[in-house]
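Below is the data:
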Amino acid sequence: DYEVTVDNDEQKLVFCVDSKKMVYKANFSEVEPQIVVTEIWEKIDGTFKSIANGTAGVWGVSREGSVYHLDANGKTWTNIMGTLTHIASGSEVWGLNLTGAVFRYNKSAAEIWENIPGNLKKI
């Protein structure tokens, strides 16, 4: 199983988690009707079961459910308080926990992950 996420911003980065939970990134170009990887995949530090890439940045969830955010230089993962099973990054960051509860990341709030009513299987 592989999980691939594509950033739609100007950086045009593709992130992938392989079956061993290792993280890779590559640049891409859009060639209709497909996306073409334009360089060799580069392994970056981290092992995650879920990865997401969007305008809110690159986020990962470890096997244990710990949440991480990749810094702007693309080298260092910062642990973010909370436990999730799935994560999604667009203009905002969303996640699910083990029971399917939905959370939205709110850096300015005292409780960093705001619980949103409802339950989902995947986000």
Q: What stands out?
A: The first strand starts at residue 3 and ends at 6. The two ends are 17 Å apart (CA to CA). The mean pLDDT is 83. Residues 103 and 115 are 5 Å apart (CA to CA).
